[in-house]
Design brief:
This protein is of the alpha/beta class and 415 residues long. It is 47% helix and 15% strand. The chain has helices at residues 17-29, 49-59, 77-89, 94-98, 102-114, 147-154, 161-181, 193-202, 241-253, 255-261, 276-284, 298-303, 319-326, 355-367, 369-386, 389-413; strands at residues 2-7, 34-41, 65-70, 119-122, 139-143, 187-190, 208-210, 231-235, 266-270, 288-292, 306-309, 330-333, 350-351.
Amino acid sequence: MEILFLSQIVPYPPHGGVLQRGYNLIREIGKSNRVHLLAFRHPETLPTRESVEQSLEELNKFCATVEYVDLWPKKSPLHLAATLGCGLFVKSPFSAIAHRSISFRKRVRDILAGRPIDLIHVDTIALAQYSDLGVGLPRVLTHHNIESKLMARRAPHEDRRTSRYYIGLQADRLFAYEREWCGKFDVNIFMSQIDAMEMKRILPDLRTAVIPNGVDVDYFRPSPPTDVPPSLIYTGGMNMFANKDAVLHFLKEIWKSIREQVPDVSFYVVGQDPPEELVEMAKRDPGIRVTGYVDDVRPYISQASVYVVPLRVGGGTRLKVLDAMAMAKALVSTSLGCEGIEVSPGTNILVEDDPGAFARAVIGLIRDRAKREEIGRRARELVVSRYSWVGIGKQLSQLYEATVSSKSSRAAGNE
């Protein structure tokens, strides 16, 4: 089958979130399909000609063709300011404006004209605007989160009134955009049944499927336990609001209680672009270790006693959680942090939303090695059985086949 895969970002290098999902799914579906990848290039992930060439070399292992278009708001601060300004006065949400590109539209049109495309995979709601070029072809749309819900959850946690207004406005516009575009696709793909059911409450006739996030269970493997001082860890790019908010919330509301009971504990924050406030906290407290971006998170996760997920904002499912579970780490998470993953609280994860209870759960695990190891072992068992990318890739390929078949049957019935 010939698949046109439209992505909001080049899925390489596969470090975190959307990048990780895109890379692994393309690798898997490329085993049984010819994938034509068209993606927006973000300068912060592929900043040099060498990095671009490396990504092309890697992705061409799985794809029939690979092409990039530069994301225009990230060309300069002026471009970004113009996009943000448009987000105030243009009806479309900011994310759709940011991905509006004459060059991208032309390449979609050219690929459709020059290739025998069987199905179009649109990998985020912001790119739904290009699906009008594939009318008549089977089309699927991925929702990594319900974006309107993500923004609505985020707005109250913004510090400034202007930011709360802007994010709230984007939530409303995304909600309208989702209602306008989702029903035009043959299938809407969600990360969890929770998100699929929520969208169907809004659009009852929507055709949905759940293709969950996954983990490379061979890459993320447990390592032998070591006798090192106790440490906690959180991984995730601090350029994402949800990650920054989670870490600052943890340090302001939870960390002090843990340090009082376990004075020699350390907290590792691993991820790019740590905010200045976090850097200043680390200068005042030697127990806070801010690494910034690292090429490989596994050594950091491996040495940690407990992986904490104090998320208050977000949607979909968190790949970082699956990565840590695959490494047999004991996790303490908010209910939102593990939302969409079929965990069993108390068995393969501990879930606490109250800051005091969260701190007590972490302290308990630090002090009880046997419990940590048992929870970690069961966490690993869960992801191996349900969240391996190999199995998830097969699910997606089967969904493609069913979508094409269904579309053909409906077309034949209308003749």
